[in-house]
Inverse folding.
C-alpha cells in the first residue's frame, strides 16, 4: 500500500466515525427513548388537536422535523404580558413574546414533551394569546420546582 492510500483510508475512517457520532448524538437527543423518563404524575393528554406556542428552537422547521419526523406548519403568534429571558418566558405586564403557533395531535405533543424534557426541565402550562386563544406554553422549571 502506498502512503497516499493509507492517508486517504485514515481520513475516510475519521470522517465516517464523525458522521456516525453526529447521527448517533442527534438520535439520542431527539428520538431515543433513552435518557428521559417522564414523571409519573404528569396529567393525561387528550387526542387533540393541541395548540402549542413556541418561542425558541422549535420555531425552526428543521428542529421540528428532527423532533417529530414530520413537517409542522406554523403561524406567527404573540404572547402578551410575558417577556423572554434566555430559555424561559416569565410574566411581565406590558411586554410581549413573538413566537409561532403549532397545531399538533396527541402523539406529536408527547414528542414535543420529550424534546422539552417535560417535568424535568420544563412544564407545559395553558396561556392565552393576544387573540384570546388558549394554547400550551413550555415554561422552564425553576430550581425550587
Amino acid at each position: 500500500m502506498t502512503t497516499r492510500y493509507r492517508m486517504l483510508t485514515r481520513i475516510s475512517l475519521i470522517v465516517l466515525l464523525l458522521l456516525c457520532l453526529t447521527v448517533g448524538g442527534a438520535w439520542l437527543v431527539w428520538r431515543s427513548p433513552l435518557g428521559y423518563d417522564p414523571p409519573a404524575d404528569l396529567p393525561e393528554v387528550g387526542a387533540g388537536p393541541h395548540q402549542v406556542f413556541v418561542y425558541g428552537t422549535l420555531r425552526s422547521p428543521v428542529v421540528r422535523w428532527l423532533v417529530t419526523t414530520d413537517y409542522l406548519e406554523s403561524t406567527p403568534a404573540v404572547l402578551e404580558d410575558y417577556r423572554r429571558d434566555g430559555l424561559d418566558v416569565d410574566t411581565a405586564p406590558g411586554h410581549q413574546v413573538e413566537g409561532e403557533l403549532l397545531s399538533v395531535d396527541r402523539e406529536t405533543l408527547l414528542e414535543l414533551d420529550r424534546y422539552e424534557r417535560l417535568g424535568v426541565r420544563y412544564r407545559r402550562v395553558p396561556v392565552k394569546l393576544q387573540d384570546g386563544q388558549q394554547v400550551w406554553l413550555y415554561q422552564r422549571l425553576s430550581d425550587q420546582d
